[in-house]
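Suppose a colleague, Dr. K., hands you the sequence of a protein chain of 541 amino acids and asks what its three-dimensional shape might be. Before reaching for any lab equipment, you can write down a predicted structure in token form. Begin with the sequence itself:
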Amino acid sequence: MTPYWPAKMPRTLTLPQTSLAQNLQFSALKYPDKTAVSFYGQSTSYAELFDRSRRLASHLSAQGVGKGDRVLLWMQNSPQWAVAAHAVWVLGAVVVPLSPMLQARELAFFLQDAGIRVGVLGAELYDRAREAGLGHAVVANLAEGMQGNAEFPAGLDVPVTLREGDTALEDALKAEPAELVQIDPEDLCVMPYTSGTTGRPKGCMHPHRSAQANVTGAGVWVATSMEDVYLATLPFFHVTGFINSLVAPLSGGGKIVIMARWDRELAQQLIKREGVTIWTNTATMVIDLLANPQFDAANLASIRSMTGGGASLPAAVGQRLEDQTGITFLEGYGLSETMAQSHSTPKSHPKFQCLGIPLFNVDARVVDLDSGAELPSGEIGEIVISGPQVMQGYWNRPEENAKAFSDIGGVRFFHSGDLGYQDEEGFFFFTDRLKRMVNVSGLKVWPAEVENVLHGHPAIQEACVIALPDERSGERARALVVLRAGAQTTPQEIEAWARTQMAAYKVPRDYQFVEALPRGPTGKVAWRPLQEAARAEMAAG
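The predicted structure, expressed as tokens, is then:
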């Protein structure tokens, strides 16, 4: 147990037994006229946000959505995202948040796997949703009322002709408000997807209890109040953005300044204009912000808390941020399986490139890969976690659940698949992964999934995807490609084709043609030596 737990802060928290829909209900009762979200100058009060959520819930109910049903939420960050999520929770249903970057073939898998019939999505994604086979779509034009707003990102004002049976969000909001369904803390509320070595995504089953654990903990850890102003730049479909930039701020009565897409110049202007006090982001955003020739540290004067995760911030960048702005970037650690943070770095004892210390009610250990025994400080093993924010398990994946959890001294622990160690002060550090994964600006890319797609290219016989360090995004993917006999293509052609097959962040930007791929004793491609050799070559060069 670290001696650097913040002074006079409780180590355990009594967690609420209420639903996420009730969080918004209570804030709307307490602060009805207060701005809940600001979206490129367009303000929505707490009362309006709650009313719209209940009206959309009524429409979804008329489409047969009820308690436990999975509902697709597929759009850019926006007030509409917040309305849709809370509408689902009003009914006791389950939000399945997915990346707007997915292509139709990728979306089709999630619709089938989660048994999704109904979805709320952005207008620019409607054609893809139809192609993927979504049943009923509620379609939101995020540019509603934004015409002429120079700050609003291009490409989101898309005219749509709806097929019979689908509904525009504005029409769905004309329904009479629905009443909140009674829920149990163990009822599912959100199911973000992650993946694994097979490349087949898995739904992480989170009940209201596990989400509330981090909603509550986030507020206590940073000592937030209803007067705080949050900048939401992390995507809401990602657990960190979902908890720290949406649900926790609304639970506490704060104001959220939402950006649909990242824009480094606009971000600093919004921080200054709106008086942003709290910003959870990624290392990539910090690097990009500081690289802006027009960056002015004075614009960040209102910020009192900047936290982040997903990828380590280079120490030199963290020091530059602190030197220029006085802001200490506090890193944390978490997973889709832990509904965002399980660890965070205390402000009183910051360390760069550190996962932090276990948070409220969390028992985290480093265990030996073979024996499962807990290791002493300094020794590398697998990070395992027990805590109230840990998921119930993977959706319809009993075999995966058997591998992911183990009993240690009568306590259920989740195996993170991440290798790390604790220092003598109780801080956790990441060293490597058991699982194959590329961390691109905090977005997880699973090599096996990308390889499966690349193998569909007519010129490719075989492909192996590895993770390489990248100054801007933390990591990037490189594809080592064996071409079919007599086939000819270029890296540019493969990349252009791949962009039509999968989300842009998954597409490798780096391709190398090779004669053959090395294999291990079982005949599988030996990816780790390839990755280690490429990293060593980069370090030497």
